[in-house]
Amino acid sequence: MNVYVALLIMLLVAGVVALVGVLAGYLFGPTKPNSVKNANYECGCDPTPNRGSQARFPVKYYLTAMMFIVFDIEVVFLYPWAISFFQQGKFGLFVMMTFVELLAVPFIYVWARRGFDWN
């Protein structure tokens, strides 16, 4: 039961810290809204065409977000593999190289289509 007490204390402290942060931002943060602060902000680009609340954002913003998620997940899986590299042997190397190759295909595709260019 002692293990669960420590876990509950940690959760309680994390909840208190989160609530204090939200409360401090609410109490001490600026509260003067204007049109610039209330405007939508997506990737620094103005929506096209500009039709008010029904405006459409460029697809490139969403593609960049998806690329970030895919390659971020790749890195998350590479860290534990790198730590236990010597214990896994040849099978672990084969599995990870297959994983990297499968993720290299969309990377090469995006690179060939100039998805990483910001112009």
From TrEMBL:
Keyword Lyase applies: no
Say yes or no: keyword Cell membrane present.
Answer: yes
Give the top-rank taxon of the lineage listed in the UniProt record for this protein.
Answer: Bacteria
Enzyme superclass (EC) = translocase
* UniProt cross-references to InterPro entries, sorted A to Z: NADH_UbQ/plastoQ_OxRdtase_su3 (IPR000440), NDAH_ubi_oxred_su3_sf (IPR038430)
Known EC number: 7.1.1.-
GO MF assignments: NADH dehydrogenase (ubiquinone) activity; quinone binding
Topological type in the membrane? Multi-pass membrane protein
Instruction: Tell me the compartments it is located in.
Output: Cell membrane; Membrane
As its record notes, the protein acts as a catalyst of: a quinone + NADH + 5 H(+)(in) = a quinol + NAD(+) + 4 H(+)(out)
Q: Where are the transmembrane segments?
A: 6-28, 61-79, 91-112
Q: Which UniProt keywords apply?
A: Cell membrane, Membrane, NAD, Quinone, Translocase, Transmembrane, Transmembrane helix, Transport
Gene3D superfamilies assigned to the protein according to its UniProt record, in alphabetical order: NADH:ubiquinone/plastoquinone oxidoreductase, chain 3
Q: Would you tell me the Gene Ontology cellular component terms? A: NADH dehydrogenase complex; plasma membrane
Summary of the function given for this chain in its UniProt record: NDH-1 shuttles electrons from NADH, via FMN and iron-sulfur (Fe-S) centers, to quinones in the respiratory chain.
Query: Which family is this protein grouped under?
Result: Belongs to the complex I subunit 3 family.
Identification of the protein by name = NADH-quinone oxidoreductase subunit
Protein source organism: Mobiluncus holmesii ATCC 35242
Write the lineage as a comma-separated list: Bacteria, Bacillati, Actinomycetota, Actinomycetes, Actinomycetales
